[in-house]
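Hey,

Quick one before I head out. I ran the complex with iron/sulfur cluster overnight. Inputs first:
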Amino acid sequence: MSSLNERIETLRARYGNRLAILGHHYQSDEVIRHVDFQGDSLELARKIDTLSAEHVVFCGVYFMAESAVALARPGQKIHIPDAQATCPMAEMAPAQRVEDVLTALRDDGRLVIPLAYVNSTAEVKAVCGLYGGSVCTSANAKVMLEWALQQGDAVLFLPDKNLGHNTANQLNIDTTERLEIDIRDEGRRLDHKKAQYARLLLWPGACAIHHGFKKSQIQALRLARPGVRVVVHPECPQGVVRAADGAGSTSYLIKYCANAPAGAKIAVATECNLVNRLAARHKAEGKEIFPLKPLACSNMAKTNEERLLALLENLDTATPLSLSDDVTEHSRVALERMLRICA
Ligand code: SF4
C-alpha cells in the first residue's frame, strides 16, 4: 500500500494544471510538502487571481478560503480539506454584532470606519466593504490604519486588539485616543461617552496562540541566553512587542531569520510549525532558531495528509466553498480596496 504522501502526489500529477494547492506558513511539514504555493494571508490572497487552475485547494483556516472565494475568477472552485478548521479569533467578532456596534457608534454622529484584520469571517469583511472600510493583514496594518483614519472621524479595528494597539504604537496614536470597547449584551454596554473621544476603537479579540506569549518569557530567556535575539508577531501583546528586538508579519519573521548572520540565536514568537521549519532551513548556516514558547494552532492542524487525500480523491464531485452573492460582492470590495491601496 502506498503512503499518504505517494497517493497525494499521484493525484496531484493526475490533475496536473487543473489543480493548485495553496498552504499557509502555519501548516505542518507533511502538508507543506504538497503545496504549489506557500505564503502568509496577504501573499496567498494576491495569488488567487493569478491562478488558472480550475480547482484551488486552500490549506489553512476557513476565513482564508473564504477570501479566496471572494477573489476567485469565474468558474474557479475553492476547496478546504477540513471545513471545521476555523479561527477562534475570527469567531470573536460575529458579523451581526459588528454591524450593530458600528451602527450604534455612527448613531452618535461620527463617521466610524470599520477596518478588519483578514483573520475575520467573510460576513465581517462584507460589513467593512459595505460601510466604506477595508481589511488589513499584519504586513500592511500600518498603511491600512493610516488610510482608514483619513476616511472618517474614527476607526473601528477588529477583531485583534493586540494588532490594533501595536499598529497604533507605530503610528504614535496616544493611548488616550484609543478605547477597547465593551461588546457584551449586543453592544448595549458600549460606553458612548468615552467612544466619542476615541480615534481608535478596538474590538476586544485576540489570538490565543500569540496572546500566550509573555514579556516575562523574553526577560527570562535573555538572562539564560545572553546575546539571543527575539522577534515576535504583532498579534502578541504590546509588552511582548516592546521587549522584543523586532516585530512584524510572518514574512518579516522569515526574512529576519534569513538575513541574520551565521551563529545568530533567534527566539521567534509565533506559531511553532513555522518556527521549526525556519530552524531546519537555517541550521546548516549555523543559526539557532527556536520558538520563544512552542505554541501550535490546533485549528491549522486540522488540515493533515489524511484530509487532503480524502479531498483530492473526490475533487471533481466535491462541493466547493461558496458565499452568498451579497457577501461575495461586499467582502470583495473590502479585499480589493486593500489590494489596491497596498499595490
Ligand atoms: S494562529 Fe491564531 S489567528 Fe491564526 S488561525 Fe490560529 S487562532 Fe487564528
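The first strand starts at residue 19 and ends at 24.

Talk tomorrow,
K.
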